Amino acid sequence: MTASQKVVFPVDPSEQTLIEITRDGPIFIMTMVDNENRFTTEMCKAICDALDHVADVVDKEELTEAALLTRGQDKFYSNGLHIEKAFSVPGFTDDIYMPMLNKILMFSIPTIACINGHAFAGGCLMAMAHDYRVMRSDRGYMCMNEILLPSPLPAGMSALLRYKMQPHVYRDVVLMARRFSGKDALANHLVDAAAEGVDGTFELAKQLARKISPMAKSGSFYSMIKEDMFPEISSRLMMNAKL
């Protein structure tokens, strides 16, 4: 895969494109292109297929510098699950959505979420599954709104938030549905950096991606170290999956 190539998922041209993969030097850029980027069976499968594609390229080219950057478009990173479509599929949360989060969490090269806009509920969880996060500071919020629906949080989702957030922040996220702007998210260590505008956020995320891309030279040890970091998150995300 060269810098000029774009690979889309699903690969079938008769299906709507949900994910685009491009490359900028050592950075693989995964762009979600379905407007609000709500999670359905099709979206989760496209993300997983795209991750497999990136991993295959890294292995085949024996890359010693590589990072994955994910982003949305316009004012949305992801607005969470598409409730009607998601819950029309039996076992969607356990068998499809949470295994996708686990795949991101344990991915074999550094991952950066470029949060260009709103990251609500499932979108917030996807961002938190990455190794690093860069968020737009002048527009968009991160939020878990389950308490307002109301809806419970499955153990895997709770574990992901609990281990990635400070205790008082986790409390406010799950019990108050607090919305965090980019500046608030940075102050509360939900993200690693923030910048103004879509372009500014993207450029800052790419700077971070380039900085950490040499960590890919560790190969399988990168994901092995993450397995040691997050055993409870991974086990709870996968505890009810029928794969």
UniProtKB/TrEMBL annotation:
A cellular component annotation (GO) from this entry: peroxisome
InterPro entries: ClpP/crotonase-like_dom_sf, Enoyl-CoA_hydra/iso
Pfam families: ECH_1
Transmembrane spans: 104-129
Any single biological process term in GO: fatty acid beta-oxidation
Coiled-coil spans in chain: none
Source domain of life: Eukaryota
Catalyzed chemical reaction(s): a (3E)-enoyl-CoA = a 4-saturated (2E)-enoyl-CoA; a (3Z)-enoyl-CoA = a 4-saturated (2E)-enoyl-CoA
GO molecular function (one): delta(3)-delta(2)-enoyl-CoA isomerase activity
Designated name of the protein: Uncharacterized protein
Species annotation: Mortierella polycephala
